[in-house]
Amino acid sequence: MADSIGVVIPAYQPDISALETYIKHIKSEISPKEVRIEIDVPTQDHIDRLSELDVELGISRQRRGKGAAIMAGFDALETNIRLFTDADGSVPAASLVDIIQPIAASESDVSIGSRRHPTSDIITHQTVLRRFLGDIFALGAQYMLPTRCQDYQCGAKAVTADAWSSIGHHCYEPGFAWDLEFVSVAGSLGYEIAEVPVTWEDHPDSTVSPLSTSVELASALVDVKRRTDAIATSPRYRDVESTDESDLRVLGSDGD
Has keyword Transferase (predicted)? Predict the structure, then answer.
């Protein structure tokens, strides 16, 4: 791809062997200019093994949270496309290519993976509890937020450098609610968002607790709604031309 691509992988207590394999696949599929691992509270073994992989390391000795790690990584990149993907590799490298494509083709400013897209390939599902909580949260977010999509929380999203320079000023969530905030801020600022089907393979050994994360997301949803409503309705916040929810394109749906 002609565009320079930077990849950020936020990590906390990762499976290093699996992460090593994932990074190799990403490099093979995408040929990114830079891969940054933003890792919280790493062991020396984490640091030593990741340092052998020709990646940049952003190390925090304290638990920053997923959102804070991604934002630090995006701010550090100098590429004109910036992609993040979760360290567990639930979204394979081939699907990351699909997520980047709408931006590389100048069809959108922001591109998000979607497990709920009708043509997504779900190899292994989340547990029944995770799916139930995720469905309830997605419905609540669609009802409350000015930016509507099918899947706010899929762990792979891309953005142009120019769009990030505006979106990043309005993002504050340090934890798992960052995905939700990022999408809602992007739409409220008028950026066109492509929602892209992905292949998904759940990893049940994730460090994410479904119950505590659901509480965190529900609490953050109120704050994100307040902030993004202000962006959507106040001209002084608008960085790009106003659009409405119909500008969020679901790739692969009828009519595309």
Answer: yes
